[in-house]
Design brief:
The structure is a single chain. The chain is 36% helix and 18% strand. It is of the alpha+beta class. The protein has a single domain, classed as Glutaredoxin. The protein is globular.
Length: 171
């Protein structure tokens, strides 16, 4: 039975919860941010350009209809402090774990997004790969040893931004 007290309590709780931002879908069905990297999908070039502009290069792997990807955009990236820190300090290349676009890997090889994800051992979304500040020597390393860090799932917002800060600060 619904009481006035219960109704009032649920209304107060609902009004005090932060509103979820509306996630924007791109033409490919992936959630997008206006500040994501526009790229020719050449990883070495993207990393070099990011470094030259004082940013760190990351690949964000997404998937159409991914609930955690939606949550990341509606909660984590809707927080102005989180969004501005990432936008100001990172060049984010958004790729589709099942995508067919051709990407040039650090060694010059061309693969589909799906094949690149498999090569790097990306198994779920969202996943974020953090790369070093220079592409020098990356081609000679096995793909899974090219990253400086990886976020293989979606933690709560404070742990999410802490990972970005740790990479940015070289920890």
């Amino acid at each position: 039975m619904i009481t006035r007290r219960g109704l009032l309590a649920s209304t107060v709780v609902a009004m005090s919860a932060p509103a979820l931002a509306k996630a924007k879908l791109g033409e490919d069905g992936l959630y997008q941010e206006d500040w994501y990297l526009e790229s020719f999908l050449d990883l070495a070039e993207d990393l070099t350009n990011a470094s030259q502009s004082g940013k760190r290069f990351v690949i964000l792997w997404g998937l159409r209809n991914c609930p955690a990807c939606r949550r990341m955009h509606e909660v984590h990236l809707a927080d102005p402090a989180i969004e501005s820190y990432i936008r100001d300090n990172f060049a984010v290349l958004h790729l589709n774990i099942l995508g067919a676009r051709e990407v040039t890997d650090f060694g010059g090889g061309k693969l589909t997004e799906k094949a690149l994800a498999k090569r790097y051992g990306i198994e779920g979304t969202p996943a974020i790969q953090f790369f070093p500040t220079s592409a020098a020597g990356l081609a000679a390393k096995p793909p899974k040893e090219r990253e400086v860090a990886r976020m293989a799932s979606l933690p709560e917002p404070q742990a999410f931004i802490a990972q970005f800060r740790a990479v940015r600060n070289g920890v």
